[in-house]
Amino acid sequence: MNRLEAMSVLLLTVEKGTLTAAAKELHMPLPTVSRKISELEAHLGAKLLQRSTRKLTLTEAGRSYVDGVRRILEDVDEVERRATGEYQVPRGELVLTAPVLFGQKYILPLVTDFLAQFPDINIRLLLSDRNLHLFDEDVDMAVRIGVLPNSRMRATRIGSMDTLTCATPELLATHGKPKHPSDMERLPCVVFTAPTTATWLFRESVSRKEFGVDIRPRLSVTSAEAAIQAALRHTGFTRVYRYHCAEHLRAGALVQVLRKFDVAPLPVHLIHGSQGQLPLKMRTFLDFAVPRLRDELALMSTSNSSTK
């Protein structure tokens, strides 16, 4: 029995949730996957998985063993990277993820410039408004907007991002400019956070206490970009991150309202899960990306201040 291979098969099976999904990912016959896990259990003299027709569940021994296996395989990967020179020369594949529109506007141009300078590095850029799990989905680095939970992730702050409410001048001429967030309850709105209702957070200008306003949208969509396009067509007010609409605000196609009720800006980080010495491809990308992203977000913040 190849123990490292069996460990890898077990870990992937747990991550995928079924033997069938693991077999498909590994391009391996299903009976072979099952046999390798059974051989590992026999070697250990312990049951690792409770198997049913619908799902797999780790036993108590299995949970402990899988945690150890994950650390062992990470150490093996690091040793192999050292042996192939990944810590001496920036090379290999780098997997990045970012929110869709942020990635298109800021990460993609940065990535193309980076690739031009480092021909031995390839990049997979995964654009998703879902927060991909770095360990489970083999992602090296991610852009996160918002307060980070406590975790094993290492983070580099690159700036902050405010949330704003905006509409076209034509819509304001028709419906009037809201004086207080509660006015939004009667005004047409476009949301992309819920199918029927949404709660938009604001902050009292004096007490700085946050409060929510329940919105009944004229239109609900599934992306910020769609919400902006609907707002540009005078469908309603919308509430988005500044980067979603910065160019339209500068052009005067959209107008920000209720500024004094804005909530505090959210931090923006580049995060990664690597412990110890970083592979050179990741350190090189951080050194390249962080100052440029900080400049971009600072410029956006300065532009916001100058228009208040």
Describe this entry's structure for a reader.
This protein has 308 residues and is α/β, with parallel strands linked by helices. Helices cover 43% and strands 23% of the residues. It has a five-stranded mixed sheet with strand order 4-3-5-14-6, with helices on one face. Strand 9 and strand 10 (210-215) form a beta hairpin. Helix 2 (19-26) crosses helix 3 (30-44) and helix 5 (100-117) packs across helix 9 (280-306). It is elongated. It starts with a helix and ends with a helix.
SSE arrangement:
Blueprint: H1 3-16, H2 19-26, H3 30-44, E1 49-51, E2 56-58, H4 60-83, E3 92-98, H5 100-117, E4 121-127, E5 141-145, E6 154-161, E7 163-167, H6 169-175, E8 189-191, E9 198-203, E10 210-215, E11 219-220, H7 224-232, E12 237-241, H8 242-251, E13 255-257, E14 266-272, H9 280-306
Parallel strand pairs: 3-4, 3-5, 8-11, 8-12
Antiparallel strand pairs: 1-2, 5-14, 6-14, 7-12, 7-13, 9-10
List keywords for this structure.
single chain; 308 residues; alpha/beta; Arc Repressor Mutant, subunit A; D-Maltodextrin-Binding Protein, domain 2; 5-stranded mixed sheet; 43% helix; 23% strand; elongated
Alpha-carbon Rg, integer: 24 Å
* Form type: elongated
As residue ranges, the low-confidence spans are: none
Q: Helix and strand string, N-terminal first?
A: HHHEEHEHEEEEHEEEEHEHEEH
How many domain modules? Answer: 3
Proportion in helices: 40-55%
Count of alpha and pi helical runs: 9
Structural category: alpha/beta
Widest β-sheet, arrangement of strands: 4-3-5-14-6
How far from one another are the termini?
A: 68 Å
| Strand elements, count | 14
Strand content is 15-25%
CATH domain class of the largest domain: Alpha Beta
CATH arch. level architecture of the largest domain = 3-Layer(aba) Sandwich
User: What's the name of the CATH homologous superfamily of the largest domain?
Assistant: Periplasmic binding protein-like II
Major sheet summary line: 5 strands, mixed
Residue-averaged pLDDT: 87
- Stated plainly, the CATH topology of the largest domain is called D-Maltodextrin-Binding Protein, domain 2
